[in-house]
Amino acid sequence: MSKAVRIHAHGGPEVLVYEDVDPGRPGPGEVLIRHTAIGLNFLDTYYRTGLYPAPAGLPLIPGGEAAGVVEETGQGVDWLRKGDRVAYVTSIGAYSEERVIPADRLVKIPDGISDEQAAAMMLKGMTAEYLVLRTHKVKPGDTILYHAAAGGVGLILGQWAKHLGATVIGTASSPEKIELAKAHGFDHVINYREKDFVAEVKELTGGKLCDVVYDSVGKDTFPGSLDCLRPRGLFVSFGQSSGPIPPFNLAILAQKGSLYATRPTLFGYNATRENLEASAKALFDVVASGAVKIMINQRYPLSEASNAQRDLEGRKTTGTTILIP
């Protein structure tokens, strides 16, 4: 038996229970891995609260990204062997010491990337990858707005977008978070608690506004995000940390400048093995080059996952947080 964190009923962080769980043995096409580091993400809280339905019902082991070592391979897995370092992104199952997982969702961790870095950046880093390279291909001269600039995705995306030549504007909630974001690629960071971010964006851009707005906040930043876009600009809603965006009439996109809007997901963009490998390679390459640095700002034991989620929801964390089995 090994330990895992499970949810038996939806609710607050207190429903996360650290207990014995049998990970099982790998079947055909599967691998048993021993986790060495596990990423913490806001997505994990959505499964805990029931905002996102559990794929196979309850009990549920949350957690969407981790790194570890191959312990055993199932029939037909010939490209991995015991001792290989691997990392992955899934929807659930990472809050565990060991797990069985389909081999085709794993990527090998290259030399020069630590297990902790890989666990800290797989979901957040590949999210940044599809946002800046595929949802909107950021190029020199672009002006972008990113909400929650001091969060895990924000600190990666800010560096990456700056590396690609964009002017990067962010929003954050405190002077400390503003300084952190500025140290990670953001040219301008607006304290949204003290200032109207729409007015600030208009002033910073001389009225030209932004080519794209990346918004993982949701309810609290809508429809203000639309007012930060130039005509035919792109609104990218990829999360809802403040709650879901209420239903709206599509005509608002016409009224505000023939805007585009999309609601992408990492799993939609990396649904195929080819997409997954390309996304991971782009991420590993930009980190290995030094253009993007992965800063792990908080570490918690896996047994304290409830405290980690409580701090995440209370906006007490910055950047990336990992759980250590």
UniProtKB/TrEMBL annotation:
Domain Enoyl reductase (ER) as annotated: residue spans: 11-323
Do you know which InterPro entries this protein is assigned to?
A: ADH-like_C, ADH-like_N, ER, GroES-like_sf, NAD(P)-bd_dom_sf, QOR-like, Quin_OxRdtase/zeta-crystal_CS
Which Pfam family, giving just one, matches this sequence?
ADH_N
Please give an example of a GO cellular component term from this record. cytosol
Q: What top-level branch of life does the organism fall under? A: Bacteria
Quote the SMART domains the UniProt record gives.
Answer: PKS_ER (SM00829)
Database matches in CDD domains? QOR2
As one GO molecular function, the record gives: quinone reductase (NADPH) activity
Alphabetical keyword list? NADP, Oxidoreductase
NCBIfam families cross-referenced by the UniProt entry: PRK10754.1
Q: Name it.
A: Quinone oxidoreductase
